[in-house]
């Protein structure tokens, strides 16, 4: 592993790739700071723009966007009481209360430092744990990989949505989209409707853009807000650094980092769960739990550190097993595939310089958040909050259109983007999560190919799929993930006796 890291250092710290990380981090902070947008939206816009670029340059921008957007969402949460993402909801509780007390500058500094610490611990866990998980994955055969793909779909469907049934339906939508094109086993075209453009299946970049970029743009158009954030709230004053109170925050940073890393590794759990759990842990361990929600900076520290610690950790199962730990990791997984990088053991064998370079870029971007996201820079980036949505929406739509068209120079791709984007709006408003759809499209073909291989090896014997101990463990986990939410709902509907 050390040799691979040393081999990746020159590429990761090449001037062009360093610039990519810086640009991605700045863009991520701005995207995260804009209410209504999310890191997934930024990624969906970014990925088509990086098509054809050097993989490390593209991945550097993604790493910066991921960590920068994670922190940027804390800016409107603290200043406006508007969480930039679901993960920053816990930050609102104490962050905005500090703003009302005239401590907005201190709250933002606590958010920056805590996010950086969480991101650094997370990146280190990615570098050390992902190769170990790859070695374990070498024990897997076709049947194990089939159940692993089903496990990924089950976890994402159950954890990324409030309703298990809707999550499963969304995953099935993705499975259907993944069947479009030529069957890898038989060579028969499916659902192409005699369109040559569909013979290779739906383009992943187009679907990523349609699912995660179009719905928020349409929402902005509907709102048609002509006023941005009031200027007086951007009057930030520099206050003391939270590093001076490191003895107070250190236990919170350590516990929140561990919580964020564990949640990140669990497929589908996502940053919102880690920030909530870290916040609740800090409150329970506090000597003054009643002060939480009333402007206690420890609440901001726990939430942002847990959120930052989730970022790189969610890429551990994504890079090693092809199962992302969060919705953003799912989009990055799609970005890897767009650049011809298939997650799994072969990624570490064939592209060690790229994958370890990407890990180092995640570490670097986490540190850059501290430099670019400090109070002075936040004053600059915070001005983006004053941009009216009636101007922001067409700008995003312009970049999306250029990016999607440039992939294949195809009007058909734009038509697919519009149709799928409108369907995504309806699906989102009905409460169906979008991440399981894209995961179904990514993991569906993998599960199909592995199932075909397993049945071919076993001579068509279905019971062979559950013959190994690993397969039986994976099946048990799938059943556990699907049954537990149903039991909880049944218990909740039954009520107290």
Q: Describe it for me?
A:
It contains 23 helices and 2 strands. It is mostly helical and 497 residues long. The chain has one domain. A hairpin with a 6-residue loop joins strand 1 and strand 2. The longest helix has 34 residues. It is globular. The N and C termini lie far apart (57 Å).
- N-to-C SSE series? HHHHHHHHHEEHHHHHHHHHHHHHH
In spatial order, strands of the major sheet run 1-2
Strand content: under 5%
Q: What is the SS-derived class?
A: mainly alpha
Low-confidence stretches: none
Outline: globular
Distance between the termini: 57 Å
Provide the helix percentage. over 70%
- Major sheet details: 2 strands, antiparallel
What is the residue-averaged pLDDT? 80
Rounded to the nearest angstrom, the radius of gyration is: 22 Å
Key structural traits:
single chain, two-stranded antiparallel ribbon, 497 residues
How does the SSE layout of this entry go?
Elements: H1 2-12, H2 15-33, H3 39-49, H4 55-72, H5 74-80, H6 89-100, H7 104-137, H8 142-159, H9 164-178, E1 181-182, E2 189-190, H10 204-212, H11 214-223, H12 246-265, H13 270-285, H14 297-313, H15 315-321, H16 327-338, H17 345-350, H18 352-372, H19 375-382, H20 389-408, H21 411-429, H22 435-457, H23 469-494
Antiparallel strand pairs: 1-2
Helix pairs in contact: 1-18, 2-4, 2-18, 3-4, 3-10, 3-16, 3-20, 4-14, 4-16, 4-18, 5-6, 5-7, 6-7, 6-14, 7-12, 7-14, 7-15, 7-18, 8-9, 8-22, 8-23, 9-22, 10-21, 10-22, 11-20, 11-21, 12-13, 12-14, 13-14, 16-22, 20-21
